[in-house]
């Protein structure tokens, strides 16, 4: 009985304790709005107890259980002033006021640290990652297209391809790629990254911001910081994914069978049409075969899927973040081609003591891709529609009965090969793994003033390329009598060790900081390759070496590689008075093993004046922020050839001879050698840049923007020049190139009731000029193997690599016009067997001397756009949202090499616009030549006829979504996306986005992507 009474007393006491504990807590509910009564997503915490808190939802509503003793709550939100309110009642309505210093307090990632945006004296562009992840792209840099001033992104349609990225023009003949810094590690590109893993991305465009990276910064610096957890953060699991399909867009329409037959007859190729009719039927006006090669080569749809899982959280002393991503992108070429990657991201940070933090971050990227044979797209432009893709009548064709151009009498050869067979008989696979681990230690040596950070960043990448060609036969040219295997293994092993000492202090209105740093780095790359013939077709036998299948070659192996190291010392100092007068100064000394000149020195300085903080601006109500800034500095580019500080021995057939040939008996090859004894002390290229800009925000921060003018001059430009009276060339620093222009960005954000909207626009102008070539008159350049026929030219006071040729003034309409033109009359006198006829192109006599000579060749434009721009519009209403982004360029030109190749291959097909526009009689066309004229040498010279405008405007992205909550604790968003759904351009090609120097020899087409996606957090 006593035990029962004791148990009853204990139970009664326990419930009384629960009742008292419950009575000590209460629930506070409320709503957070702004001064316009619009709901705000805010953080609500108990004063002096920051671990007790919650966030308001999209409607501004919140509910928080607080201790009975709590008397105040702290409410804060990005863009608003934080306030403290009384918690004496259980229902609270909170109104936040906009923060006038919003644009000043934002934290921006800069080199080796962060700065308040208000303290910046450099034009550092921050990327809105919420907008970036709306794009269904495999590379994060594709998402920047049209979104950041000063940055041009040229995309490719091939799965997993790397876009071309240019920051403020081109200042080098060698390397134009920016430096990427991913969590402290230097990278050549960031294609391996999952955009959902990126927390912050900053673009350092000018010398003041980028000089801290010294010899690697000449082409701009893009800093990427990946997601991290937070202390005292509840575990949060987020899934974000989408699935969709890619559709070819802007497909180039080629001449069909009837058009090609008429064109062939008009230019005298009757035998092609007659052979096709005899072989496959029909008649000369309506052949039985009319193959649409692009339709045969392209899929109607290609699947794209992307799945991301992110876990973040933290306790009192440890934070963590974990992410996993899977991307699978099929290519739109109707053959095996895809890009597939798995990403794993891990991060943890431990606050060991009040003065010690340690952290670890790792990225693991595993990828596999099947690379397409892009030659198929070139051949599809050439291929005649008068023979079929598949021809069962070709008995010798094996193992697949592909058709052959030889069947209708067109000469065989690479350009006239069956493009479908080219795509089919291709097996080029690449797979690999990349690991980027980094370890760091942060020491607080003097609380809130002096810190030390040491970080070791590593990169290990291993790739394996396997290329296999099977035995097959189509015709005597498109064939493979022996199978061929090439296997290549490559490794990158890099490391960077950074040591940073930072001091920050303030006294009254004076604030300053000093960063001292030291960095050591090493980069190694090695590739080994082997090859063999007669390897079986089954992949299990794809090995070359002793004991393997196949027959290895004595010369079927090789090895390449390099090893560079460097050490750097750098410093940065910042000072501001009352957050009004700003100063930033940096200096970096870089030592490199690549050059005989071991050290380079790169200073920079930036000044800023925040006018909106001056007393004379206090009474005005227009500007919330008005800041003027200017900067100057030097940058380096070590992405050029290293020193060749020794004699180079050249061998091979060009340096050898055959002796002992008598009659029909061949002699013996005797190897020869030639020594190149000339070399110079090569050093890195140096960029000198100054920048002036204005940052502003007005109308209660609803309208904001930046305006910058930049001028960057690349000195010590490195290139190879000939040695007079010799075959040798010498590589050195000879030239100077300048890039200048304006960058303007404007954004408007506002809310009307429940409707929120934002409008943004940006534009960048570019003027590129070559200032010095070291005494050379010019340098001729161009597309490989076609540079002599259709050259690009580098010349002083002209843009880099401009197209060089004659200006077309129209088409000769009749014989009278020909006889009245001194150029045509003289040409016909000298060439009576092949005279100029009506329907031929008319060239402009630039110097009016009556002759078509070298002086009549002019600048026909180049590949760099004079203006790039982008527009963004966003709407949100309650749970619904919609955004549209547009992007475009103008002022650039493209050399349509597809049409120009008719110079060597007159039997090739033509695009429909070309055939339909041909001159057929007086007054029919003043743009296109006649059919006969289209293959006459007079009309196939380098001229403006083959140079077209590269201007375009593209609907870059459209996304619509709906957000809601499940059980009040699981936010969900579903969305639909159209990526690159439409483009508007006058260019006669698949796409005006052509990389390199703008020569279009049929690139992999860009596709539109339509997808459905889902995002949820738990």
Report the helical percentage: under 10%
Average of the residue pLDDT scores = 90
Instruction: Profile the largest sheet.
Output: 22 strands, antiparallel, barrel
Specify the structural class: mainly beta
Show unreliable segments: 1-23
Beta-strand content bin? over 45%
* Integer-rounded radius of gyration: 33 Å
Intertermini distance: 51 Å
What does this structure look like?
It comes from Sphingobacterium suaedae. Keywords: Cell outer membrane, Membrane, Signal, Transmembrane, Transmembrane beta strand, Transport. The two termini are 51 Å apart. It is built from 13 helices and 54 strands. A hairpin with a 6-residue loop joins strand 29 and strand 30. It has a 22-stranded antiparallel β-barrel. The chain has a 5-stranded mixed beta sheet with strand order 10-15-16-13-14. A 4-stranded antiparallel beta sheet has the order 3-2-5-6, with no helix packed on it. The radius of gyration is 33 Å and the shape is globular. Helix content is 10%, strand content 49%. By secondary structure, the chain is mostly beta strands.
Highlighted features:
mainly beta, 13 helices, single chain, globular, 5-stranded mixed β-sheet, 1018 residues, 22-stranded antiparallel β-barrel, disordered N terminus
Summarize the structure.
The chain has 1018 residues and is mainly β.
């Amino acid at each position: 009985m006593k035990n029962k009474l004791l148990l009853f007393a204990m139970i009664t006491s326990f419930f009384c304790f629960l009742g008292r504990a419950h009575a000590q807590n209460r629930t506070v509910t409320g709503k957070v709005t702004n001064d316009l009564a619009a709901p705000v997503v805010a953080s609500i915490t108990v004063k002096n107890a920051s671990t007790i808190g919650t966030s308001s939802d999209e409607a501004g509503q919140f509910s928080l259980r607080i201790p009975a003793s709590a008397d105040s709550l702290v409410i804060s939100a990005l863009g608003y002033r934080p306030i403290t309110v009384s918690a004496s009642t259980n229902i609270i309505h909170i109104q936040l006021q906009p923060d006038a210093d919003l644009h000043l307090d934002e934290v921006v990632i800069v080199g080796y640290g962060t700065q308040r945006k208000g303290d910046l004296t450099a034009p550092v562009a921050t990327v809105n990652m919420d907008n970036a992840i709306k794009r269904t792209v495999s590379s994060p840099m594709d998402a920047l297209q049209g979104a950041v001033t000063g940055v041009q992104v040229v995309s490719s349609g091939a799965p997993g391809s790397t876009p071309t990225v240019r920051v403020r023009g081109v200042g080098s003949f060698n390397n134009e790629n920016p430096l990427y810094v991913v969590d402290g590690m230097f990278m050549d590109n960031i294609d391996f990254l999952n955009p959902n893993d990126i927390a912050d991305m900053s673009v350092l465009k000018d010398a003041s911001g980028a000089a801290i990276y010294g010899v690697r910064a000449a082409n701009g610096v893009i800093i990427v910081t990946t997601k991290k957890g937070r202390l005292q953060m509840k575990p949060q699991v987020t899934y974000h994914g989408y699935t969709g399909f890619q559709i070819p867009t802007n497909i180039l329409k080629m001449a069909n069978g009837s058009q090609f037959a008429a064109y062939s007859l008009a230019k005298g190729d009757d035998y092609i049409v007659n052979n096709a009719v005899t072989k496959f039927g029909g008649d000369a006006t309506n052949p039985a075969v009319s193959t649409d090669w692009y339709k045969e080569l392209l899929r109607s749809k290609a699947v794209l899927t992307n799945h991301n899982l992110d876990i973040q959280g933290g306790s009192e002393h440890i934070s963590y973040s974990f992410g996993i991503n899977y991307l699978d992108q099929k290519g739109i070429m109707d053959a095996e081609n895809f890009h597939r990657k798995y990403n794993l991201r891990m991060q943890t940070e431990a606050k060991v003591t009040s003065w010690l933090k340690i952290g670890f971050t790792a990225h693991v990227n595993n990828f596999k891709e099947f690379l397409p044979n892009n030659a198929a797209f070139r051949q599809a432009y050439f291929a005649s529609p008068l023979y079929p893709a598949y021809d069962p009548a070709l008995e010798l064709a094996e193992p697949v009965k592909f058709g052959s151009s030889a069947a209708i009498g067109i000469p065989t050869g690479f350009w006239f090969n069956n493009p479908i067979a080219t795509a089919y008989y291709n097996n080029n696979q690449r797979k690999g793994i990349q690991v980027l681990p980094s370890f760091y230690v942060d020491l607080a040596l003097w609380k809130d003033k002096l810190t030390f950070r040491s970080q070791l960043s590593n990169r290990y990448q291993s790739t394996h390329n396997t290329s296999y060609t099977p035995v097959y036969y189509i015709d005597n040219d498109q064939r493979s009598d022996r199978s061929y295997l090439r296997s290549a293994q490559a490794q990158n092993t890099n490391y960077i060790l950074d040591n940073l000492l930072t001091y920050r202090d303030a006294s009254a209105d004076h604030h300053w900081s000093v960063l001292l740093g030291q960095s050591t780095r090493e980069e190694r790359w090695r590739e080994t390759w082997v090859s063999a013939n007669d390897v079986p077709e089954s992949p299990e036998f794809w090995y070359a070496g002793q004991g393997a299948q196949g027959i290895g070659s004595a010369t079927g192996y090789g090895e390449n590689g390099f090893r560079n190291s460097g050490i750097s010392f750098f410093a940065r100092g910042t000072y501001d008075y009352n957050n009004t007068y700003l100063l930033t100064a940096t200096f970096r000394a870089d030592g490199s093993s690549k050059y005989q000149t071991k050290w380079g020195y790169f200073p920079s300085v930036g000044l800023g004046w925040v006018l909106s903080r001056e007393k004379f601006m206090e009474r005005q109500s227009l500007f919330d922020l008005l800041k003027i800034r200017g900067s100057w500095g030097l940058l380096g580019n070590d992405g050029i050839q290293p020193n060749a500080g020794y004699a180079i021995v050249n061998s091979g057939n060009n340096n050898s001879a055959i002796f002992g040939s008598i009659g029909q008996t061949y002699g013996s090859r005797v190897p020869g050698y030639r020594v190149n004894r000339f070399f110079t002390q090569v050093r890195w290229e140096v960029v000198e840049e100054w920048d002036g800009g204005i940052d502003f925000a007005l109308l209660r921060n609803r309208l904001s923007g930046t305006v910058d003018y930049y001028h960057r001059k690349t000195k010590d430009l490195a290139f190879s020049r000939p040695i007079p009276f010799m075959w040798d060339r010498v590589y050195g620093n000879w030239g100077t190139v300048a890039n200048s222009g304006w960058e303007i960005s404007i954004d408007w954000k506002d809310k009307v009731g429940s409707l929120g909207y934002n409008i943004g626009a940006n534009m960048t102008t570019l003027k590129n000029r070559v200032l010095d070539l070291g005494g050379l008159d010019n340098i001729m350049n161009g597309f490989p193997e076609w540079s002599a026929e259709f050259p690009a030219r580098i010349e002083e006071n002209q843009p880099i690599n401009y197209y060089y040729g004659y200006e077309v003034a129209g088409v000769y309409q009749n014989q009278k016009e020909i006889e009245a033109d001194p150029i045509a009359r003289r040409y016909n006198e000298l060439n009576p067997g092949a005279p100029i006829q009506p329907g031929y192109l008319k060239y402009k006599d630039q110097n009016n001397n009556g002759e078509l000579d070298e002086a009549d060749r002019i600048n026909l434009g180049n590949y760099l756009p004079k203006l790039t721009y982008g527009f963004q519009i966003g709407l949100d209403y309650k749970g619904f949202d919609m955004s549209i982004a547009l992007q475009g360029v103008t002022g650039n030109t493209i050399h349509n090499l597809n049409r120009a190749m008719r110079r060597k291959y007159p039997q090739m097909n033509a695009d429909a616009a070309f055939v339909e526009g041909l001159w057929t009689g007086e007054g029919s066309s003043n743009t296109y030549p006649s059919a006969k004229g289209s293959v006459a040498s007079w009309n196939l010279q380098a001229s403006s006829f083959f140079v077209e405008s590269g201007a375009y405007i593209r609907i870059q992205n459209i996304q619509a979504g709906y957000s809601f909550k499940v059980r009040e604790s699981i936010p969900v968003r579903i969305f639909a996306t159209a990526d690159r759904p439409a483009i508007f351009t006058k260019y006669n090609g698949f796409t005006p986005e052509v990389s390199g120097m703008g020569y279009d020899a049929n690139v992999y087409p860009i596709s539109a992507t339509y997808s459905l996606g889902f995002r949820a957090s738990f």
